[in-house]
């Protein structure tokens, strides 16, 4: 049965007040948490005080506690929220997930090491200095990276056209020799910002992290989990890179030869600082973005230490079906009305969108009270970068392939694009089949009376068979009743 433990003390919950909901990952925008659906009661006694300390009766301030949750035969990590005292009780809420709860709140950049390209101690980033330094190691470093791919390397140096990065340049500008590109290369070798044939400030070198690199750096390298599933092996996903607007430049102001005049040159900082080149997302936010923006089912298994990522509209067509005809339920099945008329899938900057109905996909902007909106965290990367593009909402996406890097921004790779609309776009490849299925589906709520074993079967089955047909399991909500569980399951019926 469900138990909440803190400091090796089992909290005396009032069993009849505890209701927990678990939603199947493919049907929710949240990421792998079970939670109470209503505040529940914990008896106020000596054990409660020993575990949680004094009640918040006099502080009127909600408290949070890290707890362990025994659900069936598995122990999870969770957070207990103490809301308010009630005569003889404490009213609380609960969320819990796998053993990685504490890791999910960390920023993705914190999993990456700072990299000193000359293998010395990493140094803090500075924007300006009067102390000159030698940055020639950058040429060999970039040259060693450009022909390598993910997951062998977690970032690379794609070339992007950005002619206005330093504004309208004049001959007396510090950047008048700027080539108009980030990571400008000649035969795979970047000219540096020091004096080359009498030219200063030729280039801006900056790393761009691959979209999947935070997944591998956190789960595989740091947490020592295996990464499995179609997403991890998808060459298109492996080739996507995140577009940021920071660089490695340091402004150096120094005297000319006669020391009566001063000049400004720019050189590349010798340390790569991940926080400058990755979005400011926590690990949970990052996984949630991957999951929602590319319609991915994410399953973290703390027993086998694997994270499994598969495209929802691929895996659900071939999912095993569990026969539950022997399970007890209270009333006949009647479908609930599905009020969603269409899905509006759009980019973070709202410039790229499609409307998906049960039989159509169109670039006409359709939105009403029955529209379900899916807004991604990304935006298309234009052929030429501009300051106004960076000011728009969203993180840019591009592809990197060193064989075609001379074309600068790569608009498509293996017949896939980073646009939402269009052939090979995100809507067509990852969403339309699944969303049109949901629009045509019937939804049912079923009340089961379950043993621990039967509850576990419902929790761990994507699809079940009863009433002479199969259903997808969207969610289950359960409460304890002595040795049994009362389970409200939301099921979906459809014809693929």
UniProtKB/TrEMBL annotation:
Q: What is this protein called?
A: Uncharacterized protein
Origin, by domain of life? Bacteria
